[in-house]
Amino acid sequence: MTKVITYGTYDFLHEGHIRLLERAKALGDYLIVGVTADDFDMARGKINVRQSLMERVEAIRQTGLADKIIIEEYEGQKIDDIRRYEVDIFTVGSDWVGKFDYLNEFCKVVYLDRTEGISSTEIRSQHQSLRIGLVGETNIVNKFKNECHFVNGIEITGIYASSKGVLDRELQDLASKTEDYVDLLKKCDAVYIASKPSEHYAQVKTALESDVNVLCESPITMTVDQFKELSDLAYERKLVLMDGIKTAYSLAFNRMMLLIKSGIIGEILSVDTTCTSLIDIDEDNPPKHLWNSITAWGPTALLPIFKIFGTDYVQTMRFSKPLKGDDDFDLFTKISFIYDAGVASIKVGQGVKSEGEMVISGTKGYVYVPAPWWKTDYFEVRYENPSENKRYFYQLEGEGIRYEILSFLNMIKGRKSYNRVSPEISRQIIEIVGNKRELQNGSIF
User: What pTM, to 2 d.p., does this model score?
Assistant: First the structure.
């Protein structure tokens, strides 16, 4: 009996897929079809897959062409599968010619011509078209616009910005065509808000009242009561209100959280995060739309602490260095948290520089994430015996923003599990970031 194996994502299974499977089947007597797992696709930078793994597996099963269906979950699995199932022929589409020649050592490799005129990318675009507007004046808006190009079915319809200074040429041209914020909302199914935090509440509320879904850079509001009001409004109107912390959608960050929860370093006793930027600030005339330290970096720095320890801390201690003449603008803030089970701390700064690392300490070892930890594609698990240390590498595309956009898209489609920042974490971030007991002259409470 001749065994044949092939692999693919098979998103929105179409005629081209089926013809390829039929020709693969004709090469032998027994066809094994490998379907790529969601995490494996993301690790390879393929983030525009619309259907879940189970939906794609079921579609392959219904063709009746596969004698066996397996899941591809890691790099190098093809060799393991060929050996495990005693495969005679590996086959794949001709657009991969030469890519898998190394498998000739283990079996025969056959490249099959693909069906002309049929594209999974085009089919995905037909299944989803989301008109999204942008709001804000910071460089993150430029990055968000660029990352939208990597997610099929996203159309940027305009931008509302009170200042065009840092926007790229494309966004400046779009901004000139948008009269005001309400005008932008008329052209949108969803809006991404990255304006100054003090403006978030009014802008989010207006969007939701206009039946527009919202992805808002954290913090969504500056008070817990405002957040509850907006959350209730989104629920009533069956809209998505999503907290924008791109780190939450990084594959490395999520894999690290899973490892920690599994007990790989024992009981967690301490979490310490640092996020700083050394930027030029004219203390006598600070930029109008510059975020202060706690709003710019606080949500990111707080995320792993609340993911690990939860939000029920017992006590906090806080120190801030305010900008001269502006007590609401902190150049630097350090906050310590005391929990029943451990301690945690954050250091954030817009006018100070420190090593932007994260250290998570446990009773068996610790996790070290080098700077900048919030954009990591790599972390280490370290032990008393250095020979037991292990390094983990995961591909990160677009600082996590494109995965965040895709998650937002999936939530709008009704897949609520794609939200990586729970409402409770969002609420507690607001409680900390919006706390007006800002420390006068570097005092401590």
Answer: 0.76
